[in-house]
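ok so i was messing around last nite and threw this chain in just to see what happens. nothing serious, just curious
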Amino acid sequence: MPLSFISRAVALTIPVAIVLFGCDDSSENQTAQPDQTASQQPVPVGIVEIQPEAVTIGETFIGRIAANQKVEVRSRVSGFIEARLFNEGQTVTRGQKLFRIERDTYEAIVAQRRADLAAAEAQAENADLQLRRAQELSRRDNIAQATVDERQAAARSSHAAVLQAQAELRQAEINLGYTDITAPIAGRTGRANLDVGALVGPESGPLVEIVSDDPVYVVFPVSQRRLLEAQKQAGEKGLHTEDFVVYLRFSNGSRYPHPGRIDFISSTVQRSTDTVDIRAVLPNPQGLLRDGQFVQVTIESAQPETALVVPQSAVQADRQGAFVLVVTPENRIDVRRVETGDTLERGRVTVRAGLNAGDRVVVQGLQRVRPGTPVDARPVEPVTDGL
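result:
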């Protein structure tokens, strides 16, 4: 192929390429311009304005309900159960009759002991008469002094027999009274372990259990380290045990309506867990709390504190720590490093440092903005978790 032909082909190709590349650059510039313009449009975001508010700071633990009294009812005498006088699960009062044991045998024993007492009293009366006669004869020297001494001893012995008979009668009457088995405390009965016709006695075991459930206790373990921290913080604020309120939540998340108070802190530490048992007492008028039940325990200060609060969903974290996005007066996004504090109900958290009253914190549209992004800030009601 001639060299001149190749030169002419190259010369024709270069202008065409220049035209094509020139067209591509122009098209790219035209499409890039709208994107840059769009990025400068304010991005709509939802914000909340932070203001100081009164909050109750709480600490949450897991506890177990315990009855303030729990008694196993047993028979104190032997016999057949003649009647059961309560329904299982019934609330009973102190002294209310629960079981009745056949009384015939014990009534007969009482009658016999009364007869024994009457005989002993008659013997004592006769011994007294014999002693007075002997004393009269002794004054006339018509009887030996030894005889007087013997009759005096007989009189004392007969009076001792009267006391013994009285004691045996009293014991028989007590045993007769034990045939009516009564509730030693007020509370709710459990399931009856024995029923009508069963032979019972002191060795038969519990007939039924009674649990006193109003008020009730909740017992929860607290680590030794956390307890020391709490006591130190309370001391710095001048707070005492009675300045705290205890609230409960059930396993379904609902809150128990009646608050309680701490009434006991154990003086010993559980060696296996390094925890201290704390006990609180709560009213239980509806019987919603049952012995052995697991609950969530929250201890709060009775007096609210003032703090800045943000929705927990607004708090993000990176390698440097926690931060929130704030809208500046120029309506641009700014990053604020924050120090969070206590977690509150409804998905909120206190902020100890990093924010000021009046700051506008972004709670909606967090994924669409970056530091410096212009925004259209709109106040919204924050979405919170929990009840």
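not much to say yet. The radius of gyration is 45 Å.
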